[in-house]
Amino acid sequence: MSVDSLRRAAKESVSGLPGAFWWLWTSTLVNRLGAFVATFMALYLTLDRGYSASYAGLVASLHGLGGVISSLGGGVMADRFGRRPTLLLAQTSTAVAVAALGFVHDPVAIAGVAFLVGMASNASRPAVQAMMADIVRPEDRVRAFSLNYWAVNLGFAVSSMGAGFIAEYSYRAGFLIEAGMTLVCAIVVYLKLPESHPAAPADRGTRAKDDVGLGTVLRDRRFMAVVTLSFLVALVFQQGAVGLPVAMGRAGFTSADYGSAIAVNGFLIVALQIPLTRVIEHRDPRRLLVFSSLLVGVGFGLTAFAGSVGVFALTVCVWTVGEMINAPTQTGLVVRLAPAQGRGRYQGFYTLSWAVAALVAPLMSGAVIDHLGAGWLWAMCAAVAVVAALGYGLLMRRVPAGSGAPAATAAARAEEVGAG
């Protein structure tokens, strides 16, 4: 492909999206560029503070538990109070909590602040996804979610490398840098992003009547099936971060070997996510979700036969392509199934599926590897991914072919679910 063709393809990938999207995208990128806590929390607690690995695991679990709780809370806030206030509160709270984490010394205090960091940081995700759906045209949403996913991975890749150098100098400096970057995100939201909730402030009385409650979402059997399938896929994806390093270590590989293999994931997403989006954005989402789930199953299943770093990296390539297809397509499906006035709550449940998977995955990998061996873990990952593919195939037969999200009110939505 010529340079002009590449330039034209890149321009087509980013053209046509509103300015508000790009400010939201910038906020996401800055946030991920400043990520530090999630990457180096275990090293900070064990190497710098001298705590045990068990205590570090407990703190990580509390951090994840905070995210589970705030997934739904952030979605409710995004619908009830607006996307913009929720983002501002979540980001400023995250900045304060992360900064505090660099100064507390008591183990109980560290665990408590880590829990608050998990709550505050995860509360912004439903609001970001709901605002993105509000401001982007239905036909551009898969592309927009894909670009946002690309920003998340680019920021994380850069921050992981930078955080390593910062940690050698001072862990506290890393916490303060993350707090400062998160405040920058809040400033961008405050200065550049207007409220995007479909209901205007003057219509709050009408909105209260048509509001979507958590019960409405729970009664939406089709959507809860999507959440369940999302959990299954996320449970498999998480094994790249929790099961793979343990399995490689048991097989005699070093942490550097694991780092080399998993680095392929970030590199491929940064290099291929945008051009891949041009291929998938107008294709049948049912086929994409089925194919991506099967690809993930094949990638993790083949890990059982890996005997060198190169083969491990090859399996990472396979499931990473599945990840790049699945992530924007699945997020777009959530938007399609959510009524406009309930996008925050619907996105909150979707975020919850990933947060719960992050809690369950370490327990799953540890138990299976200890009692059955790594080969069984990869066989189970393949089986779970196949179940998810079959589920998507059956579920998507009932989803309308249109690309836009339903415009029904909560009452109409409840009637549709009851009839289904």
Automatic annotation (TrEMBL):
<dbReference type="InterPro" id="IPR020846">
    <property type="entry name" value="MFS_dom"/>
</dbReference>
<dbReference type="GO" id="GO:0022857">
    <property type="term" value="F:transmembrane transporter activity"/>
</dbReference>
<feature type="domain" description="Major facilitator superfamily (MFS) profile">
    <location>
        <begin position="20"/>
        <end position="400"/>
    </location>
</feature>
<keyword id="KW-0812">Transmembrane</keyword>
<protein>
    <submittedName>
        <fullName>MFS transporter</fullName>
    </submittedName>
</protein>
<feature type="transmembrane region" description="Helical">
    <location>
        <begin position="223"/>
        <end position="246"/>
    </location>
</feature>
<dbReference type="Pfam" id="PF07690">
    <property type="entry name" value="MFS_1"/>
</dbReference>
<feature type="transmembrane region" description="Helical">
    <location>
        <begin position="258"/>
        <end position="276"/>
    </location>
</feature>
<dbReference type="InterPro" id="IPR050171">
    <property type="entry name" value="MFS_Transporters"/>
</dbReference>
<feature type="transmembrane region" description="Helical">
    <location>
        <begin position="375"/>
        <end position="395"/>
    </location>
</feature>
<keyword id="KW-1133">Transmembrane helix</keyword>
<feature type="transmembrane region" description="Helical">
    <location>
        <begin position="21"/>
        <end position="47"/>
    </location>
</feature>
<dbReference type="InterPro" id="IPR005829">
    <property type="entry name" value="Sugar_transporter_CS"/>
</dbReference>
<dbReference type="InterPro" id="IPR036259">
    <property type="entry name" value="MFS_trans_sf"/>
</dbReference>
<feature type="transmembrane region" description="Helical">
    <location>
        <begin position="349"/>
        <end position="369"/>
    </location>
</feature>
<feature type="transmembrane region" description="Helical">
    <location>
        <begin position="53"/>
        <end position="74"/>
    </location>
</feature>
<keyword id="KW-0472">Membrane</keyword>
<dbReference type="GO" id="GO:0005886">
    <property type="term" value="C:plasma membrane"/>
</dbReference>
<feature type="transmembrane region" description="Helical">
    <location>
        <begin position="149"/>
        <end position="167"/>
    </location>
</feature>
<feature type="transmembrane region" description="Helical">
    <location>
        <begin position="173"/>
        <end position="191"/>
    </location>
</feature>
<keyword id="KW-1003">Cell membrane</keyword>
<dbReference type="InterPro" id="IPR011701">
    <property type="entry name" value="MFS"/>
</dbReference>
<keyword id="KW-0813">Transport</keyword>
